[in-house]
Amino acid sequence: MAPLADIISSIKDPEATHFTLLDDIKPYSISSLILLEFQLQALIENIYTMAQPGPRKGDPTLDIWIGERSLYIFIVFLTVLGFVILIPTAYIRWRHKRLREPEVIFIVLAYILFLANELVLLGLQTRVYRLSYVALRMKPPYREILNDRHDVIILAYASTYLFYSALWCIKISLLLFFRPFLRALPDQLRWWNVTITYLFIAFVFGFLATLLSCGGPKQLNHVAPGQKYCQGRVDSITRNISLFGWFAADVSTDLLVMILPLRLLYGMHISYAQKIRAGALFSVGMLCMITAIIRLVQIGSKTGITNPNVQWLSLWGTVEATTAMVVGCLPTFRLIFRSPPGEGQPNYSIKMPWNNESSSNPSTPSGTRQEAPSSS
């Protein structure tokens, strides 16, 4: 039985005919044959590349845009930052006896999903870099290359769902934070219900778009060795629907969450300085919108929107997820400016013009003011 190295050498040298190829290949295991196939494919690509004039064009999905160690440190640093911002949030709520508020559940759930996503990304990057090194011919093919490619696809799907689930938990926590302020405006509560319904519909749309992209889960087990995954015309369309669909859902829901309390802010009988402070509190979702837009722009400028690089997706996904965690915790810091528990706290009233359609009590005379929780 001839060694694999001799088989490959014989193919490189057509005059070497000291064995019969099929007879010598038969005794090898499937993994060895797969390794041989990748080596033959690399050899053919090398021959083709040498025949082409000019420098070889790299595939942006395989290029290394950031060093493996740098990306690893970056992900770990932002993961720790998310935990660090959670510690004072928990302490402030405990000190002011606000740990039982409903938004706390979603903040904690968001961090669990955020942490799970970062751990998945760390496992994903190890495999992505190994595959990139082989694709760029910086390292030779290895036996587990097919398993790594399959794991990368599975982990990428898992990361997408964990990432957006964490973002949606933060959005829900902000909506639950706004709800007590809207009790004085019953018609605004109806808009609150519309917003929470839209959040649910948008998430289901994004979930299905990702699940059905690139041929769906059944396509994972039908990718032959040497065949690229999710590169067909239909696959590209479904992949782009998933990417742009999530982006549109993310930005539109952030916008709705910020617009919702504007009428409340307009009706508050407080100073302009207090209105500015309350407006800044209500518009923290703008940070998530900005990072979502930067993420899409950066992916497009570096690797192309239609065929993004996993490393670049991981980097900017981590930035957006960490920003969302900070945004979700920011409303808690309003409690720093409030009196300690047990002392009197001022409530700001809201102008409620008499309106039979918008008032929960039509008999309330014009000019009556209803109380709303303080925003400071």
UniProtKB/TrEMBL annotation:
Belongs to the SAT4 family. Residues 344-376 are annotated as: Disordered. InterPro entries: Rhodopsin_dom_fungi, SAT4-like. GO terms for cellular component: membrane. Pfam families: Fung_rhodopsin. The keyword Cytoplasm does not apply. Residues 146-338 form the Rhodopsin domain. It is found in: Membrane. The keyword Transmembrane applies. The chain crosses the membrane at residues 71-92, 104-124, 152-178, 190-212, 243-266, 278-298, 310-330. It is a multi-pass membrane protein. This is Rhodopsin domain-containing protein.
